[in-house]
Design a protein that fits this description.
Blueprint (H helix, E strand, L loop, with lengths): L4 E4 L12 E6 L6 H11 L10 H8 L9 E7 L12 H18 L11 E7 L2 H9 L4 E3 L4 E2 L3
Parallel strand pairs: 1-4, 1-5, 2-3, 3-4
Antiparallel strand pairs: 5-6
InterPro entries: Barstar (IPR000468), Barstar-like_sf (IPR035905)
Family: Belongs to the barstar family.
Protein name: Barstar (barnase inhibitor) domain-containing protein
Length: 152
């Protein structure tokens, strides 16, 4: 399985993804999962039927038909704040696993499914909190500057 999650040491690292539409997710506006769901729904212009839960997020990130760009990068900044006020720490772990799996799913899309394939990656601003969680959860990631950490 290839890497779907990248860690940026600065916004300048995003130049590597210059051919992607980059959507910024503000950690300061996403301190709880509910705030994150509201924020991502706004920035990605989710359809009205979004259910503000992990299953619904998974469904929409596996669809993305309303987004014209074929290459999409979600850049999470202020990751020290991202879902930092959620009472159950497993919720952030579940979210990270789902994001990783969703990006991987896009790579294996069957061309006959009548869906236009997208390339989806997730980029997180570097923070010790995020790096430790990715390693703990054994979610592979790569520094945009080139260092890889398979985390398991």
């Amino acid at each position: 399985m290839s890497v779907n999650i990248y860690v940026a040491r600065s916004e300048a690292d995003l130049k590597k993804f210059s051919d992607f539409a980059i959507v910024k997710i503000e950690g300061q506006k996403s301190k709880t999962l509910r705030q994150f769901y509201e924020h991502i729904a706004e920035v990605l212009d989710f359809p009205d039927y979004f259910g503000f839960n992990l299953d619904s997020l998974d469904e929409l990130l596996n669809d993305l038909e309303w987004i014209e760009d074929h290459k999409l990068a979600l850049y999470f900044c202020h990751t020290e704040d991202f879902v930092s006020q959620e009472r159950n720490p497993d919720k952030l772990s579940n979210l990270l696993h789902m994001l990783d799996a969703t990006a991987e799913d896009w790579k294996w899309l069957d061309e006959e499914e009548d869906v236009f394939a997208k390339e989806l990656v997730f980029i997180f601003e570097d923070s010790s909190r995020l790096r430790e969680l990715l390693k703990q959860e054994e979610i592979g990631f790569e520094y945009i500057s080139g260092e890889a950490d398979s985390a398991g």
